[in-house]
Amino acid sequence: MTGTGNIVARLPFPVAARKELADTQLRANLRRATHTIRDKRLRVVGEVPDWEELRVAGAAIKDDVLARLPELLERFEAAATAAGATVHWARDAAEACTVVTDLVRRSGATEVVKVKSMATQEIGLNEALEAAGIEAVETDLAELIVQLAGDTPSHILVPAIHYNRTQIRDIFDRNGLLSDRARTDDPPALAEAARRHLRAKFLSAKVGISGANFAVADSGTLVVVESEGNGRMCLTLPETLISVVGIEKIVPTFRDLEVFLQLLPRSSTGERMNPYTSLWTGVTPGDGPQTVHIVLVDNGRTDTLADEVGRQALRCIRCSACLNVCPVYERVGGHAYGSVYPGPIGAILSPQMSGGGANRTLPYASTLCGACFDACPVRINIPEVLVHLRQIGKHPPAERAAMRALSWTMRDRRRYAAALRLARRSAAPVRWLAGDRIRHLPWPLSAWTRFRDAPLPAPESFRDWWTRAHG
Amino acid sequence: MRIALFVTCVNDLVFPGTGRAVVRVLERLGHTVEFPAEQGCCGQMHANSGYRDEALPLVANYVKTFDGYDAIVGPSGSCVAMIRDWYPKLVSGADAVAARTYELSELLVDVLGVTDVGAAFPHRVTYHPTCHGLRMLRLGDRPYRLLRAVRGLELVDLPGAEECCGFGGTFAMKNAGVSGAMLADKCASIVDTGAEYVAAVDNSCLAHIGGGLSRTRVKAKPIHYAEILAS
């Protein structure tokens, strides 16, 4: 079933990118942040002697999961149910939001605390809860900043990557988190302000909402990996816990976590190990939430699974290493991608999950430079999938005609040589008028000369020289 | 050894000097180069832009033209990457000819065992490794070794060398704004080195970089490294 929610871009990528490119502050913030994480990641990955073997193992486990997903999901459901959780299934974003909203309503709560979760962002849960009169409080520091700013995240792992500390101080100030004396942009002071704000929320909330980084089929266990401890607060303090989980998050056994708990922190935050890893299995009497619901979300994942080349995108563990090395992401940030999944992984995931629309421009939002493939901890060959999606997508008729004509010309020696001669002759008067560099070309080639001069065909082609020199 | 030159369509039309340079280097080393005239385009632009069906006849033409040569040299990292990485996936029977296709530095260093090609180029040069040379062909230090052996050449490090210049084939047109932003950063890095020349293994990246440098009236000139090796 086709995915819906916050994975569907409203504007074509080149149009959305234009606006972001004009923001020089944004570009400076992004450059600084991505390069810092990038260097950290390289350092800690370099410490692991068997990193390549780990990547191969991670990819193999995920491929195995994708090959027998229905069986593993059923096993997960059985184990989680036996442990006291209630498992729900949601076909798309709207259905998932309805399930969660009904559960919160039934609990009588009007405020919920949230662990940062891509799945809940994907389905637009905060907006759905708000429409139902329920306030959802994000407890991850960066996610809170974005929420207080009335903005959307710009990065999978660092949602507020596009803000600097002065901008964050102003956002906190507007929302009454800072006392008059504390109008500082000192990071520890800002963190302390957020901590005070959140502590009150943790202690009063009756419902916690989370996602999961991994779901263990054998035991029905969910895993959340985080850095601030806010996740653990959300997972243990409320009476009711609702976890929204994409169906591809399954790993077969507890042992498989060994691979991913090495791959994930080093790839995402550049840490050897993240500070908090929480695991919970159903309900434990007298300890933690006494009501646990798990919502398993499809939202276009089975569509993606059906594509033999494209399905590798479902290996993704949302580490965001590909974003941090992507030269395109670095220039435009996450918003240009129009989906909660930005950057290279978003360019292959969003179009596959949601099909069509403005998302059709995303596979072209890459130079195919390959940095993302090298960085991916589960070896998703992103350039391969990008090319594949370009292949199965629709092409503009004029472009298609030009490509066909070029192919027809270049496959035959005589036609090819004639075309070279024609190009060379057409260039001769231009060279006479304008010299070697062309500053303005007519549409559609004007896209080239907006930013760079264009070269002209040489006075003599190589093959003509060869014939002249070698007979 | 029967060495065939695959000159590539961009070089044939716009940068024939690169093809002439490859011939000069190899002949100076005592080899005979052949130029099979049936050759055309490798099909990279078609394949990467999503026109697989249009790429296939070009792939077939390449395989037919170059079958039977001991080594085929292509002075373009991205075309050679297309041939080596994609051809075996696109058509059956392309494996052998794809495996015998080398980028110039691979042919010189790995096959012919040469790093000093007897060149002299008394200039300050910086080297942009290009994405396909770097991450698909994994050329590593081969081009650097060849350049360091050139007499009089001062090789200076390019800051952020491994970052894409923003060309990306049709990307430069479809996402001209982002491509322009990436190009501006690459040009700024080149200016920082104070080099007279920026060298690379690919004339398409160099056409993009050179176009940017010329637009901003920077003195640094783009040059295919084969032309340095032939000097």
TrEMBL record, chain A:
Gene3D superfamilies: Alpha-helical ferredoxin (1.10.1060.10), NagB/RpiA/CoA transferase-like (3.40.50.10420)
Annotated LUD domain residues: 73-297
Keywords: 4Fe-4S, Electron transport, Iron, Iron-sulfur, Metal-binding, Repeat, Transport
Any GO BP: lactate metabolic process
GO molecular function list: 4 iron, 4 sulfur cluster binding; metal ion binding
Domain Lactate utilization protein B C-terminal: 391-468
Pfam families the UniProt entry points to: Fer4_8, LUD_dom, LutB_C
Highest taxon, organism lineage: Bacteria
SUPFAM superfamilies: 4Fe-4S ferredoxins, NagB/RpiA/CoA transferase-like
Domain 4Fe-4S ferredoxin-type: 313-380
Family matches, as PANTHER family: LACTATE UTILIZATION PROTEIN B
Protein's UniProt name: Iron-sulfur cluster-binding protein
From TrEMBL, chain B:
Superkingdom, taxonomy of origin: Bacteria
Protein name stated in the entry: Fe-S oxidoreductase
GO CC, alphabetical: cytosol
GO molecular function: oxidoreductase activity
Record-annotated Cysteine-rich domain positions: 3-84, 125-209
Lineage: Bacteria, Bacillati, Actinomycetota, Actinomycetes, Micromonosporales
